[in-house]
Amino acid sequence: MDPSLEQARQAFVAGIEQFERHDFEAAAALFEQALQRAPGRPSVLMNLGVSCVHLGRFEQADVCLRQALAADATQTDGWMAWGVAQMALGDWPQALYCHEQARALGADGAEFCLRWGQCLAHQALLPQALKAFEQALAHDPEFAEAWSQLAHVQRDMGQTAQAIAGYQRAMQLGADPELHRYYLAALSPDEPVVNAPAAYVESLFDQYANDFEAHLVGQLGYQGHRVLLAQLPVPPGMRFERVWDLGCGTGLCGRLIRPRAEHLIGVDLSSAMLDKARALGVYDSLHARDLVDFLKQDTERVDLVLAADVFIYVGHLEAVFEALGPRMQPGGWLAFTVEEADPGLAVQLHSTLRYAHALTYLQGLAAQHGWQWARLHRAPLRLDQANPLMGAYVYLQKT
Q: Which end of the chain is more exposed for a tag (fewer CB within 10 A), N or C?
């Protein structure tokens, strides 16, 4: 036997032993050794890919599993692992395809049905997702995450009573109580409005980062960032010494304000979003922080603060205004967008998990914290169910 092939075989066998011990780091190293001595072996590529999924090395897993399954498409474990990698990488159509392939080969079980349902839900295939989550619960009736995901779909399908029961059951089984109280508050108008948990917002936008602009701007026609800056009530050529872009995301506002900013800082909870913003090269610094924490700890004075489509994920704004006031230069500007709450409500949490705010509530906060209400502009923010969603563009000047 060729010595290289024998060495590859020995490394592969040793890798399998380490894999079965759940030492995925050691297993991956041995599978890589095997590939160096015998490149392109589908069985080695598949096992390396699965090991990389366990290690969170999703890009490497994608490369390995793509090659392995192109050579042998009958490997159920390979399709399942590739589906997990695609979910982590945010390619939901490909993730669904992988899970469908695994399903056709006999994949089943509570965890698999949960992931399959998540893929279906991300593609807006809600009735199919509902059935997948029900199958997960048939395998494990006490699977808290499946109850929670089922409730998400029921909420989106307008099955409010069922969704409330699902969230409550998830909480009984140990699901995150803060997060599920937030979900329940969005479905229960009589319940007090609670602020969105920071971990939820961070996770939401980490997952959204890869296709954020394509979806928000391309599909939903989002224009809040452009309108917010176009309507800013200052001379067109006016420059700002220091600008903060709160909830900067991938940098939609940053690209537009950079020519007028001496120093531009972006703040966002999502590190994945900040990676996209960093690649633009328009920010002087970027901070993965809760915005109130950032406002409290930054000691510099600022003369323009932007918050485009940010407060819809914050809720109550008292802490924001209290922290921001001391940071502003006299005459400095705060420009932000909100969706308007229904009459009689100061802060409203919709079933979409987005907040709306009453203008009277915002006017009260402005007066309390030393802001002049300079301008209000109403215009669409984006499309919702193919219809323009109106927003309020608010401009305050520090007195």
A: N
- pLDDT tens-digit readout, 282-329: 999 999 999 999 999 867 899 999 999 999 999 999 999 999 999 999
For domain 1-102, give the CATH number: 1.25.40.10
Report the pLDDT value the prediction gives residue 1, as an integer from 0 to 100: 53
- Could you count the other beta carbons within 10 Å of the beta carbon of residue 233? 11
Identify the architecture of domain 108-192 in CATH. Alpha Horseshoe (1.25)
| Nearest of 15, 26, 81, 79 to residue 53 by alpha carbon | 81
Domain at 203-398, CATH from 3.40.640.10, 3.30.870.10, 3.90.1300.10, 3.40.50.150: 3.40.50.150
- As a whole number of angstroms, the distance between CA 165 and CA 162 comes to 5
The answer to whether 192 touches 184, Cβ cutoff 8 Å, is: no
Q: Is 25 exposed, middle or buried (0-12, 13-18, 19+ CB in 10 A)?
A: exposed
- Which pLDDT tens digit goes with each residue over 321-376? 999 999 999 999 999 999 999 999 999 999 999 999 999 999 999 999 999 999 99
Q: How many CB atoms lie within 10 A of CB 342?
A: 10
Query: With contact defined as beta carbons under 8 Å apart, do 185 and 347 qualify?
Result: no
CATH 1.25.40.10 domain extents, the chain = 1-102, 108-192
Q: Classify residue 123 by its DSSP letter.
A: T
Domain with CATH 3.40.50.150 in the chain: 203-398
pTM over 0.85: yes
Q: Which DSSP category does 311 fall into?
A: G
Beta bridge partners of 305: 244, 334
3-class DSSP assignment, residue 14: helix
pLDDT digits (tens, 9 = 90+) for 234-276: 998 899 999 999 999 999 999 999 999 999 999 999 999 999 9
Sheet holding 387-398, edge to edge: 285-288, 261-268, 240-246, 302-307, 328-338, 387-398, 371-384
